[in-house]
Design goal:
This protein is an alpha+beta fold. It has three helices and 14 strands. A hairpin with a 6-residue loop joins β13 (174-180) and β14. The radius of gyration is 20 Å and the shape is globular. The protein starts with 8 loop residues before the first strand and ends with a helix. One of its GO terms (cellular component) is cytoplasm.
Length: 242
């Protein structure tokens, strides 16, 4: 906890990862997941040294992935307490934990890690195409959505998060945004094309989730308690060491 926010470990522990290769002898294999700073890490064994953190099997940006707690109707087999992580490429990673309380802990951990990272970076810009022209879309925690010309940096349009009334995508590259004009109250459709569709969709979701979390006193209270507990634990450990 003495590290900068982008290096702090939010949570880590063992899960069972469901193999995607049907030719594998074992359906599940142990996986050690760690939410640290800006990333989710997947290891075959817990990282012990600083060097171990550079040798993860997979690494994902927390604001570009989507964690989903599965309902009974979504389960792939008889195992309960499962969740998926959809990567920025659209790949679904399927995990199982032993207890329901473990599942709740992972859900809270993903929410916390995402909130902390969005709060830290404040904005993210993605390259996109509008009518064959190279553009940029900035998702800004304070301002909302800003679309600008990549060459001239001239702003084409901007909307607040509250003005987004709906969106849809083709599952490949295109996103259609439906914004409400604050003056006319009319819905204005804006369609952009991205090379990294799922990363953009997950990022937008992460920023929205962080905005909602800022309005949730219970979430903010838990964050303050966790911070205080971390400080207390660090102080106690120092006293014990001395």
């Amino acid at each position: 906890r003495n590290f900068p926010v982008n290096q702090q470990i939010v949570y880590m522990g063992w899960c069972e990862a469901r193999e995607q290769d049907p030719l594998q002898d074992r359906v599940y294999s142990p996986a050690f997941l760690a939410l640290r700073g800006s990333c989710l890490y997947k290891f075959p064994a817990p990282p012990v040294t600083t060097w171990d953190w550079t040798r993860a099997e997979k690494t994902f940006s927390v604001y570009e992935i989507m964690c989903k707690i599965l309902k009974d109707s979504d389960l792939l087999d008889r195992r309960k307490h499962c969740f998926t992580v959809q990567s920025e490429c659209g790949e679904d990673l399927y995990f199982s934990v032993e207890l329901e309380c473990d599942l709740a802990q992972w859900e809270r951990a993903f929410q916390t890690a995402t909130f902390l990272e969005v709060e830290r970076i404040q904005c993210k810009t993605y390259a996109c195409v509008l009518e064959s022209h190279l553009m940029g879309l900035t998702i800004d925690f304070s301002s909302g959505f800003i679309c600008f010309d990549a060459a001239t940096k001239a702003v084409l349009w901007r909307y607040k998060f509250s003005q987004l009334k709906g969106s849809s995508d083709d599952g490949k590259s295109k996103i259609k945004f439906l914004f409400q004009n604050p003056d006319t109250k009319q819905i204005e459709a804006k369609e952009l094309e991205f090379s990294n569709l799922f990363a953009v969709l997950h990022c937008i979701h992460s920023f929205f989730a962080a905005k909602v979390a800022c309005l949730d006193p219970l979430f903010l209270g838990n964050q303050a308690s966790a911070s205080a507990a971390g400080t207390s634990a660090t102080t106690s450990k120092a006293k014990y060491t001395n």
